[in-house]
Every structure is written in C-alpha cells, then in structure tokens.
Amino acid sequence: MYKLVDLPEIKTVDSQTHRHLSTEIGQEHERRQEKEADSEDLVKLALEVAPFFLAHNAEADAVDLLLQLDIVPKLVGFVDKNSYKRVCLYIAG
Asked: CB atoms < 10 A from the CB of 53, how many?
C-alpha cells in the first residue's frame, strides 16, 4: 500500500501507476468497509484518478473505480463530449 502512503503529485505519474493506485484504492476501501471505517480520503483520491483515466481513453477504469466506491453519479462531472459515448456504452454493456 505504499502508493497510498507516499504518493507524488497525482498528475505527474504514468498510466500504469494510476491503474495500480486504482486497485489499491479499491482494496483499501473494501477493508475499511468491513471495519465500518471512514474512507473519505479514498473517495477524494479516486476523484483525482478518474479524470486521468477519462482523459487517456480508459473510461472503463474510471467507471470501475467509481463503482467500487459507490460514487458513480460523480462521474457525470468528469465526462465530456469525447468520453461520453464510451462511458455510456461501457455502463450499458
């Protein structure tokens, strides 16, 4: 879980690091849910990662991350005319 502890500026890391971070966010969120612990910091981090995914044609990753945290409605604020169709197709599919 080193990425959650020692994270550089999120906008400066590469796609692979974002994917690993997304996985860690999901795993940590699940652990915290089991303990009924607060995960607001994970939500905040996920809301920083999701726009990166959308900007780099990884709409499925953005949707999956927000779905894991049960915050899919927040996706609306990040989609644009370029990602809207792909996001809708992924959610509908």
From this structure: 23
